Task: inverse folding
């Protein structure tokens, strides 16, 4: 979800060239795949070539490339993560009395263009159906890039009196945005999955409150589930959703590339859409009033941010809370030792864990060595490995090996469940702490333009005092424009450090109004 002000620029880029490059790289890909079938492990290191590392990790188990550029197949290994987050979020919004619904994928041009101002900047990204079979459609039909214009005509119909409020709907669906800038699995794809919530209230106060409640759920998805630290804050005027009143977001940061990434957004739309779509109601005094609206979304981008944050040179590292397999149990038979006994112990161990609600699986494949299996499950990112060999059997214990830090520990089978539960919690916690430390190490406070440029070149997450003027942000963008993209605001954190009287804006030299995070971004 790139900022609106950048959209126009992006689409100017040569589309044909991009498509050719994508095709060429997918052909090169086939060669690499053949090579890889014989050996395990990644061919690129995270620090050496982050882009290649990322696509190699994704391709291992999470996604399959498709023959349409920018579209990816989500394989069960990634879909399971999406489902776990979905179960959490869906239950939370239901507690808030949000109801699920489903609106159509197709949008008529009349409806899509009803809200000209907001659609204008996005228009190049809208995909259209123009034919059925061989004949041209009389009126082309758009595919939803988001559903404001799809839903709001019906909000206008359904909301009549104050008793119809609040109206709180959500849908889990796919959307299509025909992006032209380099597609990246999960992070920027032409079709993606998300939830979009659209709510309407009688008062602004209720809308304001919900914006923050939802933002807190997004923080929890990142921090508690994906173990990715995020900053909650307010988008600048340039970067907010143009159709709305204000936009809040959670922002993550990828140290390896020095880029910020917008994790999810919660918008207060104010009454802009209510005006356009005539979403009015009769209030208690029998007067006609306009509703206040919000919209909010998080998408499969979350999975990409998680992969980028935790993955290492051995492959994926999955936080236990979202891993579809939390524990893998591997037999380590030895010569004439009791092989069947070891296999049985593995099955019994996995069953005991499953019964206790832990997602565990035994790997009894007899055509792979234990060492090969270790690498295989490490690549898949399974948080905890249990090995059972002759000595473990003898001592009534199992050996555990953590994916996050490689630490090995023998635990008695008598306390298997408690110990594994505890270990999984520790892994989850540790992954978050490590990611947070890495991010903190990148934060750089700057006061002047020279410090800003230096920090930008050092891939820092920049925190700077800012005058909060649109013109100044545009100027910063223009002055930092280069091959790797311009710097822009990520957000102004709600948690503001103290801003001493007389502090000046790093870019304009005018009095600073707030601290704001800046950086290049995805
Ligand atoms: C692309 C094409 C057409 C983003 C687009 O963030 C329209 C749009 O309106 C568009 N890309 N947006 C902004 C989406 C705003 C808003 N929609 C509901 C959200 C949360 C969920």
Result:
């Amino acid at each position: 979800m790139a900022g609106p002000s950048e959209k126009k620029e992006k689409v100017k880029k040569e589309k044909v060239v991009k498509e050719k490059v994508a095709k060429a790289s997918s052909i090169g890909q086939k060669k690499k795949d053949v090579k890889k079938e014989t050996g395990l492990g990644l061919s690129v290191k995270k620090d050496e070539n982050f882009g290649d590392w990322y696509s190699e990790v994704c391709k291992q188990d999470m996604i399959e490339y498709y023959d349409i550029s920018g579209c990816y197949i989500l394989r069960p290994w990634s879909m399971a993560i999406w489902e776990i987050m979905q179960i959490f979020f869906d239950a939370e919004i239901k507690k808030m009395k949000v109801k699920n619904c489903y609106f159509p994928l197709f949008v008529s041009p009349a409806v899509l263009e009803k809200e000209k101002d907001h659609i204008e900047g996005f228009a190049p990204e809208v995909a259209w159906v123009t034919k059925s079979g061989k004949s041209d459609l009389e009126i082309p039909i758009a595919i939803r890039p988001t559903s404001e214009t799809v839903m709001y005509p019906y909000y206008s119909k359904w909301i009549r009196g104050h008793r119809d409020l609040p109206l709180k709907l959500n849908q889990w669906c796919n959307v299509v945005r025909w992006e032209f800038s380099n597609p990246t699995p999960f992070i920027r794809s032409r079709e993606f999955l998300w939830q979009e919530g659209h709510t309407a209230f009688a008062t602004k106060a209720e809308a304001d409150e919900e914006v923050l409640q939802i933002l807190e759920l997004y923080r929890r998805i990142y921090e508690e589930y994906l173990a990715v630290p995020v900053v909650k804050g307010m988008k600048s005027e340039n970067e907010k959703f143009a159709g709305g009143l204000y936009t809040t977001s959670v922002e993550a940061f990828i140290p390896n590339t020095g880029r910020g990434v917008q994790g999810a957004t919660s918008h207060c739309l104010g009454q802009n859409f209510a005006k356009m779509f005539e979403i009015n109601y009769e209030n208690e005094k029998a007067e006609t009033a306009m509703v206040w609206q919000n919209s909010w979304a998080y998408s499969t981008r979350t999975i990409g941010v998680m992969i980028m944050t935790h993955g290492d040179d051995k492959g994926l590292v999955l936080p236990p809370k979202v891993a579809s397999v939390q524990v893998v149990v591997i037999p380590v038979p030895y010569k004439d030792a009791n092989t069947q006994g070891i296999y049985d112990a593995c099955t019994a161990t996995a069953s005991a864990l499953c019964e206790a609600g832990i997602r565990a699986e035994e790997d009894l494949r007899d055509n792979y060595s234990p060492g090969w299996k270790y690498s295989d499950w490490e690549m898949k990112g399974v948080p905890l490995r249990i090995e059972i060999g002759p000595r473990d059997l003898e001592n009534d214990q199992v050996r555990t090996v953590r994916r996050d830090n490689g630490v090995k520990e023998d635990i008695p089978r008598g306390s298997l469940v408690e110990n594994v539960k505890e270990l999984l919690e520790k892994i989850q916690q540790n992954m978050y702490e490590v990611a947070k430390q890495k991010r903190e190490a990148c934060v750089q406070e700057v006061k002047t333009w020279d410090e800003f440029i230096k920090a930008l070149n050092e891939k820092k997450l920049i925190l700077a005092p800012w005058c909060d003027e649109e013109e100044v942000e545009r100027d910063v963008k223009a002055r930092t424009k280069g091959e790797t993209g311009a710097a822009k605001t990520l957000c102004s954190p709600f948690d503001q450090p103290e801003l001493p009287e007389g502090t000046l804006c790093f870019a304009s030299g005018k009095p600073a109004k707030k601290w704001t995070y800046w950086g290049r971004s995805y």
